[in-house]
Amino acid sequence: MKKITVFVASILLAASAGAGADAQIRGDYLEVRTANVFVGPCIANGEVNLTGKEAILAWRVNEGSWDGTPLEGLSVVAIVRADATLGDPFAGETEPARSVIVVDQSASGPQKQALLSLARSMAPELLDRVVSVESAPIDLTVDTQQRASLQAGDIANFSTRGFRKDDHLCGNETVLYPPLVPVEAEAAFTLEHEFRGDGLGSRWSSPHRASAFVGEFIR
């Protein structure tokens, strides 16, 4: 694992210290995987442990504070890579996932620490092994009918829409893999999905899949 810089180490320490603080905060949540999440067995059986080892999770705060710091209008993104299909209950013992976290470039120093703390509190196991923390402009939008998009600098992006009839490739489709964090979300179809950053040993592009969630979080 890459050595974490002094800045990253200090911000992680501050985030961990505040992760348990009382807060009331809510906003939009997006998630995309490299495997289909709304799927039937004819596709799922051919993907397990071969795909779905990567994911992008994104939060945009619409109102509220975390660790006593107001975060309205700010976003944080986590890019995750594991050794097995994320969310697979039969994966067995694996190495902890590695992650890159992107905090909103427009946030102040305390706000960046609070955003990181918020993300880690929402996905403590997934974000236990952070290899780098980046600062970049984040544009996260959510519209009707599961239309949503994320642009995190030049590091990661994805976009979604609601399902159409021709998106369903086999019968008995269901949400095989629920969201990786405790949120209220519905599955969506992924139009674009790309990670171009460093630190995870891989870059990927995985568009045109039933692989996303669009919803809301509250803590």
Layout of helices and strands:
Blueprint: H1 6-18, E1 24-33, E2 38-39, H2 41-44, E3 54-66, E4 69-70, E5 75-81, E6 98-104, H3 109-122, E7 130-136, E8 138-142, E9 148-152, E10 156-161, E11 174-175, E12 184-195, E13 204-205, E14 209-218
Parallel strand pairs: 6-7
Antiparallel strand pairs: 1-3, 1-14, 2-11, 3-4, 3-5, 5-6, 8-9, 9-10, 10-12, 12-13, 12-14
Keywords:
219 residues; two-stranded antiparallel sheet; 14% helix
Describe the structure.
The chain is mainly β. The chain has one domain (6-218). Helices cover 14% and strands 41% of the residues. The protein has helices at 6-18, 41-44, 109-122, and strands at residues 24-33, 38-39, 54-66, 69-70, 75-81, 98-104, 130-136, 138-142, 148-152, 156-161, 174-175, 184-195, 204-205, 209-218. Helix 1 (6-18) crosses helix 3 (109-122).
Mean pLDDT: 86
What share of residues are in beta strands? 35-45%
Helical content stands at: 10-25%
Structural class: mainly beta
Radius of gyration: 17 Å
- Please state the overall shape, judged from the principal axes of the Cα atoms: globular
| Count of discrete structural domains | 1
Largest sheet: 12 strands, mixed
Write the H/E string, N to C. HEEHEEEEHEEEEEEEE
Number of helices: 3
Number of strands: 14
Low-pLDDT regions: 1-10, 16-23
